[in-house]
Design a protein that fits this description.
The complex is a heterodimer of chains A (about 350) and B (about 190). Chain A contains eight helices and ten strands. By secondary structure, chain A is of the alpha+beta class. Chain A starts with a helix and ends with a helix. By secondary structure, chain B is an all-alpha fold. The longest helix of chain B is centred in the middle third of the chain and has 29 residues. About 10% of the residues of chain B have low confidence. The chains are: A alpha+beta (about 350), B mainly alpha (about 190). Chains A and B meet through helix 1 and helix 3 of A and helix 2, helix 3, helix 6, helix 7 and helix 9 of B.
Chain lengths: ~350, ~190
C-alpha cells in the first residue's frame, strides 16, 4: 500500500477539517467507491493517533517529572537554610558569651584599650554633665560617675573615637533646627549668670584633652568595640500625686570642638504647667542609653535613672507614689526600683494602682 | 523550573509559541490548586486531579500554538475553562461507562474483536523513530504547528523542505507499521 504525496496531503486536509465545499464532497464520494482510499485513510488515521499519543505521553512525563522534582527540591533547600541559620546564630551566641568571660578574667590589652576609650567617653560626658547642670539649675547637684553594667556590654568593635563636630552633636539630644540656639561666648556669659569665663576655658581645655586622648586611643588600636552608648541626658521632675502638676525639662549641650569659640546648643526646655510645684530634690537625672544587645530596661541608683531602649524622643513621665518611683510611657506604667544592677521594665498590673497613677 | 514571582500572560503565550516546554511545568504548578479546588467541589477526587491538570495544561499548549489563537481573557480564566470542559467530559465518560458496563458488556467485547488493531504497536514504532522525524510529525499532528513554525523550530531551510520531509517521514513510518500489520486490519 504505497501512498503518494498528493493523497497523503488530501487525507491530512480531510482529517484536520481543512477540506471543505466541493473538494470535501468529491473526497467523500471517492471514499464510498474507492476501497484503496478507505484503507489509506484508516491507516493514516491510526498512525496519526499513535503519533499524538506518543507526544501526549512525552509532555505528560515532562510535566510529571519536573513538577514533582521541583516540589522535592524546594523543601530540603528551605530546611537546610533554616538549619544553617539556626546553627550560625547559636555559634555566635556561644562565641560572644565565652569571649566576654575570657576578656573580663584576663584583663588583656584589648580590655585595657577598651577601658581607655570608656574613660575618654566618660570625661566628655562629665564635661557635658557639668554644662547641663550650669544651664538647667543654679545649684549644681553632684551626681555619681556613670556606672556601667558590664553585663550589658557586648564585646564588639571599638567605636570610632575620632569625634567630629557632627558626631559630638549626635551624642546629645538630637535637636531640630527650630530648637537649636547657637550662642557665642559672650552670649553664654550673659545667659549664665554664675558661669564665668574661667569655667568655659577649663571646659575647653578638658575637651581638648579628651579629644586628644580619644584620638590617641584610636591610633593605638585598629580594633573596634561596640559598647552601650549614652545617647542623651536630661532632667525630669517627678510628678507627685499629692500635686499632679508637672514640669518637664530636657536640655542638652554640645560642644563645637572644631572652633575655639564655644557654641552651646540649648534646646527643648519646656514647662507644661506652673513651676511652683517643682521640688529640686525630686528632679532626677535621666540618661538615655542605646544597648548593643537591645536591652529594654533601666538602672536606678537613687540619683541617676539610666534608661535602655527608650530614646529622648519618647514621651515619658516620672511618677511618685508612697516613695516609690514609676515611669509612664504611653499607656504603660513601669515600677522603678533602686538597684545597683540593671532591671527589665516591669509593668504595673494592679488595677487600683493603675487608676491612681493614670489620674 | 524555578521561577521567582509570576510570569505575565503575554510572556507565557510567547514561550508556548516558541516551543519552550519548561513553561508547561510552571503552568502546571501555577494552576494546580485552582483546578484541584474546582474538581473537588464538583464531585471529583484526589486521584484524577493530576491527570486533569496535565491534560488541561497540554490542551492550553496545543491551543496557543495554533496560528489563529488569540487570548481574549486572562490566561488563568481560559485555563480554568479548559479544565472545566475536561472534567465534565470525564464525568460524562464515567456515567457512559457505567451504563455500558451494566447493559452492553458482551456487545462491546464483540465489537472490539472485530477491529484487529493493536494501538500499542503503532505507539512503539513511533517511539522508535529517529528524533527529527518524530519531532516533525509530533509538531505537525499534535502541537498543530504550521510548516513555517516547524521550519523555524527544527532549523529547516523553508516550508517546502518541511513538507517533503514530513511526507518522507510519514511514508517511512507507514511502511514500518504495514510490516507489522496485515493490510486487512485497517478495513
Amino acid at each position: 500500500m504505497n501512498i503518494n504525496q498528493k493523497t497523503y496531503e488530501l487525507i491530512n486536509s480531510y482529517l484536520s477539517g481543512e477540506l471543505q465545499g466541493g473538494k470535501l464532497d468529491a473526497f467523500k464520494a471517492e471514499l464510498k467507491t474507492n476501497k484503496d482510499l478507505r484503507e489509506k485513510l484508516k491507516l493514516q488515521e491510526a498512525i496519526i493517533a499513535g503519533i499524538q499519543e506518543v507526544r501526549l505521553n512525552e509532555l505528560k512525563n515532562y510535566i510529571k517529572n519536573n513538577a514533582s522534582r521541583e516540589k522535592n527540591k524546594q523543601r530540603p533547600i528551605i530546611r537546610i537554610s533554616l538549619t544553617i541559620a539556626a546553627s550560625v546564630g547559636l555559634i555566635l551566641v556561644v562565641f560572644f558569651s565565652i569571649r566576654s568571660l575570657i576578656n573580663s578574667d584576663t584583663g588583656s590589652s584589648y580590655s585595657s584599650n577598651y577601658k581607655d576609650s570608656l574613660k575618654s567617653i566618660e570625661k566628655i560626658k562629665a564635661i557635658e554633665d557639668q554644662e547641663i547642670n550650669q544651664v538647667t539649675t543654679t545649684s549644681t547637684p553632684t551626681y555619681p560617675k556613670n556606672s556601667r553594667d558590664t553585663q550589658l556590654l557586648a564585646i564588639a568593635p571599638i567605636p570610632e573615637l575620632e569625634i567630629t563636630d557632627e558626631e559630638l552633636t549626635e551624642l546629645n539630644i538630637e535637636l531640630t533646627e527650630d530648637e537649636v540656639i547657637d550662642i557665642e561666648d559672650n552670649e553664654i556669659i550673659e545667659e549664665l549668670e554664675d558661669f564665668d569665663s574661667e569655667s568655659i576655658d577649663a571646659i575647653q581645655d578638658t575637651i581638648d584633652y579628651s579629644l586628644a586622648d580619644t584620638k590617641s586611643t584610636n591610633d593605638d588600636s585598629n580594633s573596634m568595640i561596640r559598647t552601650d552608648q549614652l545617647i542623651a541626658t536630661s532632667y525630669k521632675s517627678v510628678r507627685s500625686f499629692s500635686n499632679i502638676e508637672i514640669t518637664d525639662s530636657a536640655s542638652s549641650a554640645s560642644e563645637n570642638i572644631g572652633q575655639k569659640a564655644t557654641s552651646i546648643q540649648i534646646a527643648q526646655s519646656r514647662t507644661k504647667t506652673t513651676q511652683k510645684t517643682i521640688d529640686k530634690n525630686s528632679t532626677i537625672q535621666i540618661e538615655y542609653w542605646n544597648s548593643v544587645v537591645g536591652f529594654y530596661g533601666y538602672k536606678y541608683d537613687g540619683n541617676i535613672l539610666q534608661l535602655f531602649g527608650i530614646t529622648q524622643n519618647d514621651i515619658i513621665y516620672l511618677l511618685s507614689l508612697d516613695d516609690r518611683l514609676y515611669l509612664k510611657k504611653g499607656n504603660q506604667i513601669y515600677g522603678i526600683e533602686k538597684s545597683s544592677s540593671t532591671k527589665r521594665f516591669s509593668a504595673v498590673t494592679n488595677p487600683i494602682l493603675l487608676r491612681i497613677l493614670h489620674e | 523550573m524555578f521561577v521567582l514571582g509570576k510570569i505575565s500572560d503575554e510572556l507565557i503565550v510567547e514561550k508556548i509559541k516558541s516551543g519552550d516546554e519548561k513553561i508547561l511545568v510552571y503552568l502546571y504548578e501555577e494552576h494546580h490548586s485552582l483546578i484541584k479546588s474546582f474538581i473537588l467541589k464538583n464531585g471529583g477526587d484526589e486521584n484524577i486531579i493530576d491527570d486533569i491538570v496535565q491534560d488541561t495544561v497540554i490542551s492550553l499548549w496545543r491551543n496557543v500554538q495554533k496560528p489563529k489563537f488569540l487570548l481574549q481573557a486572562k490566561l488563568s480564566t481560559y485555563t480554568l475553562a479548559i479544565a472545566k470542559n475536561k472534567w465534565f467530559k470525564e464525568l460524562k465518560k464515567r456515567s457512559r461507562f457505567r451504563r455500558v458496563d451494566a447493559t452492553h458488556t458482551k456487545s462491546m467485547k464483540a465489537s472490539n474483536t472485530s477491529v484487529n488493531l493493536d494501538h500499542s504497536i503503532i505507539v512503539q514504532i513511533v517511539q522508535e523513530m529517529d528524533d527529527t522525524c518524530r519531532k516533525l510529525l509530533s509538531y505537525f499532528y499534535f502541537d498543530g504547528l504550521n510548516n513555517k513554525s516547524i521550519a523555524q523550530r527544527l532549523n529547516f531551510a523553508n516550508t517546502n523542505t518541511v513538507k517533503s520531509k514530513k511526507y518522507q517521514c510519514f511514508k517511512k513510518l507507514q511502511s514500518t507499521v504495514l510490516e507489522k500489520y496485515k493490510k486487512d486490519d485497517f478495513i
